[in-house]
Amino acid sequence: MKKLIIINGPNLNLLGKREPQIYGSLTFKEFFETIKEKYPQVSLEHYQSNVEGELINKIQDVGFSYDGIILNAAAYTHTSVGIGDAVAAIETPVVEVHISNTFNREDFRHQSYVAPNAKGIIVGFGLQSYELAIQSFLK
């Protein structure tokens, strides 16, 4: 059984409330329950923090023992050299995920410090971006 973790960064705890025209009306908890049911062959966990150092600690904690990390570092994607360095330092493959199409947004969101060390990037498919990342680990 594949062991995967979804790590979400700042403000993703507000899914379902925050800008529903961009992020939808489902909470992440509701969505997470549906994907756990849809992928019973995967041991799937979830972690969220608004704090950069906590995200780095989690990446390091799981980065040598899990089969995959699905990382939505949110705004830290575009600002955190530390998160980029943490992804570079681990052995577990990372798929960078974004709910919105970051290339349709402000110019600063076009830069990613995660991408150079990620297995791949999935952007702009709403919450389905997470499912596509799960599927990438199952192939």
Automatic annotation (TrEMBL):
Matching Gene3D superfamilies: Dehydroquinase, class II (3.40.50.9100)
Known pathway: Metabolic intermediate biosynthesis; chorismate biosynthesis; chorismate from D-erythrose 4-phosphate and phosphoenolpyruvate: step 3/7
Catalysed reaction equations from the record: 3-dehydroquinate = 3-dehydroshikimate + H2O
Positions in coiled-coil regions: none
Keywords: Amino-acid biosynthesis, Aromatic amino acid biosynthesis, Lyase
Ligand binding (substrate): N72, H78, D85, I99, S100, R109
Top-level taxonomic group: Bacteria
Site (Transition state stabilizer): R18
Subunit structure: Homododecamer.
Protein name: 3-dehydroquinate dehydratase
UniProt organism field: Formosa maritima
